[in-house]
């Protein structure tokens, strides 16, 4: 494509070459005159295709993460047909390839355990089949990074089709946000202020259409960042799943991928250092999910770009939160769409972006957002009226997290941004769940709740356990936030003073494993510090006496995962999947 990798800027002189049908990757399967190609063609004819359907045309794989148990993708069964229409219209040959669905609400212990499995599957689906380009259909939290990671590594032309947010929830005249209001009203129920009948009414109104969560949770964050990175059509991530614009976007994406194949426009042509710095800036401006940090680091490392927590911190210091969206703000994704959507937010922060970065449609990011208007400046605030003056994610270091940890200060009570209190330690999730609501629990509003052994290896898979519940005895006293620390993640729809992704994790002997109930822990978000009041010698002595938890996997995917997963500050990818070294193309015999 002729793109300078470090900047993403287009080299016009290198764009003159255009593929011919004989240059297509699929030509090796279908276009040559040998016995093997005869077999390939005859099998397509067996399925009812005519020779003119596929001859001399780009073959487009549509990786569809639809399933019967994935509500975020419930519309993909029909949306894939609209993608196919666009491919046909542009002169391509579409083939749907089902991929791992990863239903965020249903998969246990966490979809994060299987993100890398989807990434591996996506890469190998594209490598092993006779395809020239790919449409990636995702949106539920881990499907976006999983599909993109696989597509980056295979590096065939690829475009992402985001699932889109569901419609606003509703209950008794109140607008509900999935996830964020779940935690809010669950706390009220624990405090005895909501009865069973009311709880069921909320349950029936909080998620009332297909699509992913409509708060600025992980799904909305990741699809917005996919667009910022240049991997979707302009404006694609903001369209509600139920809006008529969504099937139009799907068709447009089908048409675009055919053009991308002929132009040889590949993911690593689009993705650059500038693209990822843009994504970090936008994550801050959106008040986005802390989970995005892990995924962006993993995506960048697949491109050979060494994105680090220091880059996250740089973005955090320079960009405030201007999207007034839950859980940090007041509105929902449907409101964001009506206010102008991501294009309007990007135009608002244009001065902070590398607008010369290339996108999948062959234009620069700056071209794609030029003149995008804001229709409601309470939803998308101007820079001088940010809802939080610094970025959505703060990176903290200290003797508890020598490799770093993260927090969302905009979603925490201000009193907890500089705080010191005694630790109340839970060795694992089961111990926490069994004891957190005991009436005799020795806990106060100043206590620091600590959860160990919930990281990448310890979880396994780093589940969303980091928003530890407020003890019921404190809920009844009116407490709604406490300082909570773990090596886990938390839902992007959640809120509170939760310190997450402590690295290295406790399960492999990180300093968090040395903390005991009663130790004093101090946090200073402005100074980016998190420390336990213990000397290095005491921490070392405790870790020497420490016994790792008994978590042994004799076989299967869990064994593979535990052996090869990297830590949170490294992106939680498999060590053998990182980097840009190419895997040889399959032999066709």
Structure report:
There is one protein chain. The chain has an eight-stranded mixed sheet with strand order 7-8-12-11-10-9-13-14. It has a four-stranded parallel sheet with strand order 2-1-3-4, sandwiched between helices. The chain has a two-stranded antiparallel sheet with strand order 5-6. Mean pLDDT is 95; it is low at 1-16. The chain has helices at 27-30, 35-46, 51-54, 76-89, 115-128, 143-154, 180-190, 196-205, 218-228, 245-263, 267-270, 273-286, 291-302, 309-318, 333-338, 341-348, 365-369, 429-435, 472-475, 536-545, 556-564; strands spanning 59-64, 93-98, 133-138, 158-162, 169-171, 174-176, 394-398, 401-407, 418-426, 448-451, 483-486, 498-500, 520-524, 529-532. The protein folds into four domains: 18-53, no CATH class; 57-167 and 209-369, 3-Layer(aba) Sandwich (Rossmann fold); 170-204, no CATH class; 394-551, IlvD/EDD C-terminal domain-like (Glucose Oxidase, domain 1, 3-Layer(bba) Sandwich). Helix 12 crosses helix 14. It has 589 residues and is α/β, with parallel strands linked by helices. A hairpin with a 4-residue loop joins strand 13 and strand 14 (529-532).
